[in-house]
Write a structure and sequence with these properties.
Helix content is 61%, strand content 0%. With 158 residues, the chain is mainly α. The chain has a domain of 95 residues. The N and C termini lie far apart (121 Å).
């Protein structure tokens, strides 16, 4: 009996065969669009999903607060640097300023904080936003204590 030899096996190079690659990806369920219009590159990305979907929305007034804070910090900083007498007069009701240097140093510090606020306005990272809000809270707390102590010391507290 003569046995027929099977034809030699030919390897199929699916990496170069574009139709085969598309069929394989279709069977695996990757490469196509899902209901949200996303194109998944792998099954892992399908299972894990897109990180952007799960981001928490920012509060409505957060960006407005950041903008208003940046503008106010910048305005008061420029006023403290350029017109220290008028700023001291506005805060302490007509008291005469003895030295302009501390007020200008205060203006420089406020200008630094305002630069941080302007940069935080354009970021989406939650950690940076948290630290800037904490910076503002600390600043306002220290400002309240300093102004209260100064008013008590000068006897202007009513």
């Amino acid at each position: 009996m003569a046995a027929k030899q099977p034809p030699p096996l030919m390897k199929k190079h699916s990496q170069t065969d574009l139709v085969s690659r598309l069929k394989t990806r279709k069977i695996l369920g990757v490469g196509g669009e899902d209901d949200d219009g996303e194109v998944h590159r792998s099954k892992i990305s399908q299972v894990l999903g897109n990180e952007i979907k799960f981001t928490i929305r920012e509060p409505l007034g957060l960006r407005v607060w950041q903008f208003v804070s940046a503008v106010l910090f910048s305005g008061i900083a420029i006023m403290a640097l350029a017109f220290p007498d008028q700023l001291y007069d506005a805060v302490f009701d007509g008291a005469q300023v003895t030295s302009k240097t501390p007020i200008r140093l205060y203006g420089g510090a406020l200008l630094s904080i305002s630069l941080i606020m302007w940069n935080a306005l354009y970021t989406a990272e939650k950690v940076i936003i948290r630290w800037t809000l904490l910076t503002e809270a600390c600043y306002f707390g220290v400002q309240f204590l300093v102004v209260t102590a100064t008013l008590a010391e000068t006897g202007l507290m009513s």
